Amino acid sequence: MPRLTPIPPADLTPEQRPLYDDMKKGIETNFKGFTAIREDGALIGPWTAWLTEPKFGEASWHLVRALADKPALPRNVREIAILVTGAHFKSAYELYAHVLVGEMRGLSDEKISTIVAGQRPVDLTREEAVAYDFTSALVNGGTLPELTYRTALQIFGPHGAAELSYLVGLYALVSITLNTFDIPVPEV
Fold first, then answer.
1. Which of 49, 79, 113, 153 has the greatest number of CB atoms lying within 10 Å of its CB?
2. What contacts 135, CB < 8 A, 6 or more positions away?
3. Looking at the structure, do residues 116 and 169 belong to the same domain, yes or no?
4. Do the domain assignments include residue 188?
5. Domain check: are 58 and 94 in the same one?
6. First vs last Cα of the chain: how many Å apart?
7. What average pLDDT does the chain have?
């Protein structure tokens, strides 16, 4: 039995409706290439959990929007960080979605499959390697090593390094949310 059930638009509460409308608009604009909205209009993936608990969902969604709005990091770098995070947490829906997005962003199947297997690809660009090492260090716990931090500052600048940190934190939250509620990969 599922832990959470996607909520069709007709069943939304007055508290859920504005969040649903905002998330649906954002999904249609920024989250393409994977299934996040069912045919009946219900949101799936982390959005199911966020609608179920709109107090937490709204706060989570604001962070998603902030990180999606004019990102400083290149798209391939962002996807490396997201895939490393999803692979660390073994988050099925996260990996499903971002394998597809990673392909759209030009990451090779070999790079993606190596990351999903929990390993560091040998053919990362300099920027991708910094994102991989930065993310891997953070998701494995402890303080980010000084050399990794300084390298990220050098490659991405202070704003880009901060964005990378928040991106890893967001996708750790997303992955943990998906795993808590055992949110499945959609049937295709």
1. 79
2. 80, 81, 84, 85, 164, 168
3. yes
4. no
5. no
6. 20
7. 96
8-40 pLDDT, tens digit per residue, is 999 999 999 999 999 999 999 988 899 999 999
How far is the C-alpha of 47 from the C-alpha of 58, rounded, in Å? 10
pTM over 0.70: yes
- The rounded percent of the chain whose pLDDT value lies above 90 is 95
The residue range of the domain holding 52 is: 13-68
Whether the CB-CB separation of 139 and 85 falls below 8 Å is answered with yes
Spatial distance between the Cα atoms of 47 and 20, rounded to a whole number of angstroms? 8
Q: What is the mean pLDDT of residues 94-118?
A: 96
Residue found by looking up tokens 């000084």 in the block? 146
Residue 188, pLDDT score: 66
